[in-house]
Structures are given as structure tokens and as C-alpha cells.
Amino acid sequence: MSISVLVLTLNEEVNIRGCLESVSWCDDVVVLDSFSDDSTVDVARELGVRVVQRKFDNYANQRNYGLNEVSYRHSWVLMLDADERVPAELRGEMLTAVSQAEDSVAMFSVRRKDHLFGRWIRGASGYPTWFGRLARIGRVSVKRPINEEYHADGLVVHLTSHLHHYPFNKGFAAWFAKHDKYSTLEAALRADKGAGRWLLRDLISRDAGARRRGLKACAYNLPARPIIMFVALYFLRGGILEGRAGLTFSLLRAWYEYMIDCKFRELKRRERGLPV
Known about the structure:
Elements: E1 4-9, H1 16-21, E2 29-33, H2 40-46, E3 50-53, H3 59-68, E4 76-81, E5 84-85, H4 88-100, E6 105-116, E7 119-120, E8 130-136, E9 140-143, E10 149-152, E11 155-165, H5 172-191, H6 200-203, H7 208-219, H8 225-236, H9 243-271
Parallel strand pairs: 1-2, 1-4, 2-3, 6-11
Antiparallel strand pairs: 4-8, 5-11, 6-7, 6-8, 9-10
Helix pairs in contact: 5-9, 8-9
């Protein structure tokens, strides 16, 4: 049994070659492109992979389209972002895992190693966080339009090996632009009547995804949340030991949370007809 690969792209000419070369072992790679206007599609076709295009609306819908509307040779599909790489140890573990997976297993989740300034920023990135990425076709759905949640019809098993993630490959300007959009979407979700509610059972759940959702919802209710984020990442999680990379990433994460808070307050004031 083997694995198909799905890569989501939008103007990823800086990243796409490295991503696709890291999965050159796969005989069924699909790039789901959101009508890039750079050389992303040209590079993908040069490397011999299939290209499907769909206009982007949100991340959950894009991934669900890739899971449900694209045909694959294999019954398992690995979902990647263009700034991620699959090292040899993860490839081997995944191939073994799917070949031995019982019918009850619907998804495998992995951790990522985030890189900045040539090093793995373990502490400042908040490692470890689990991401559902290797899905059995027809058994996984994606919810939440930003910072997606993966819901599996069956068991979720953790893999030992890591994805490698290079979120700053396109430069800091691109990172700021992307997180400006992310923060707008997160603020809108928070302003929704159901957002920000948390349940104790989520915080103590054995499911890593449920715990993450619970912690995130709980954190939205904390005062001075961006400052708490910085202190947690830089001092408590060890970002202070990671030099300039640790300080930079901790500050950027705190700034992202502050953007969410500012945009949330803007939305609530506009709802009451007040000036920003």
C-alpha cells in the first residue's frame, strides 16, 4: 500500500520545488492551486505532478475539496503546505503505518519542526502541536475556515517523526501579510456568538485536537493575552535559550494575538455603532 500527496498552493514559487522534491518518492502527487499568478504551476508541471485549480474561499473548503473532489491512486493522502518538507524518516514511518493500519484507523497526525534563521525553534514555536495530515480517503473532514480542525471517522494515531516547516521562506513581509489575513478571520470567528466558549471536558480530553481547541477557547478569555503568549513562549517554553530566532518568533506570535484582539474590539465597536 502506498500514499498519495496533496499540496495546497497560492503563489508558492519560492517553496514549491523544495516541497515536491521532498515527496519525489510518491507516484501520485496533486497540487491544488488557487490560480497562482507566479511560476508555481509551471514548476509543478515541470516536475511531473498533476495540477488542479480551484478559486480559494477558505482553508477548510479548499482541503475538503482536495479530499473529496480529487481522485487519487491510493486510499491514503498526505496533506501538505508548500512550505513543508517530508524527511526520509517520516516517509518510511508513514509507508509502514498505512501498510499496517487496521480498518478502525482513519487518520495519522504528526508534529512539525518550525525553522527560523537556520535552526529549529522548539521552545518559541510552542512545540509540540499535533496536526492531522495523513488521511484515509472518505474518513476525514476539515472544519473551521482558518487554523483548521480535522475530524476523523475512526481512530487517530500519532506518528513519531516530524514534518519540517519553513514559515519564513517567502520573507517576513509575506509572513506579516498572511497573518494579517489570518487575524482578520480569527477575529471574526471570535466575534461569533459561539466563539470563545470552552468546556472543561475539552481541556482534560485524551484527544490532542480537543485539548488544543479547549485551550485556545479558554485563552481567548484571558486578559493581556498577547503578553501572556510572549511570556509563555519566551520564558516558560524556552525561547530565551534560542537566541535571536527565539526572541523573534515569540514577539511575532504575541503580535499576531494582539492583531486578533484589536480587530475583535473593532468588530464589537462597529456592532454598537461606535467609532474605532
